[in-house]
Amino acid sequence: MTYDPAFDDPWLKWLWATLNSHALDPELKRAIQRELDSPLTLPFTTAQEYNPEFHGFSVFIKSLRPTPEWWGLWLGDVIHAYRSSLDHLAWILVDRGRTPTAKLSEKDRRDIYFPCAWDRGWFNLAIKRKLPGCRRADIAKIRAAQPYKAGKRRIATHPLTILDALSNSEKHRMIQPVRRHQETGAYKVSGAGDCIIRRVRVMLPVELHIGTEIARVYARRTGPDPDIEMQGYMAGTVGVQQGKPVQDFLNETRRYVGSLLSEFSDPPPDLEVRTRVPPP
Length: 280
Known about the structure:
This protein is of the alpha+beta class and about 280 residues long.
């Protein structure tokens, strides 16, 4: 693919989002590490209670400190820039099609968006409104990048699916929180009363809320008041929808948007220079 200056805007948005995502990642890691290093600022506490239904103890989140708001604000800026890159691409493709944007009504111009389709039928209907008059070759490239083309099992975790949902909520509803997630955990029983411990089961990776079960301790009851003391370690991360870790989502989105833009044009040769912020 050769360089076409008509596609400068989406490429500039892509790089701006990428620069901000690369800056966000180490800040998140430092903030999380500070929490872990300070016992006075632990992000959550746990408790356990006996459940006779499965003959054991449920270990769950008792308290959970909200993540700092700046995490969501920064993530929102990155989300907006990546989504804008795709919408700028859609505008360019319409503009070079059979019905350039100058010939469309104001309402039709407002409807121009990059589509996100979960099935073929919806995509076919959407392109008539979102990409009016686009070239067949351009539509074929947009179709190939749709979530439904990745297969039913991958639709929900497709980067465009998550980007579209987060972008819509960010613009129209609320700041998108960066949520805490358990990736793995290691827990052991340090003391037990009125019961005999059989085994400990760590729950699958999950988004953390108050009441979220993170482990289950199976035990045989031997007295009227079974109780345990727990010790453990949780390897946690922060994530977005579908439990996707923030950095995994941002890396996948960067590759997805960049790869799609490359289907239409190489990036500007001076891309990084044009997005460089001058020193104060």
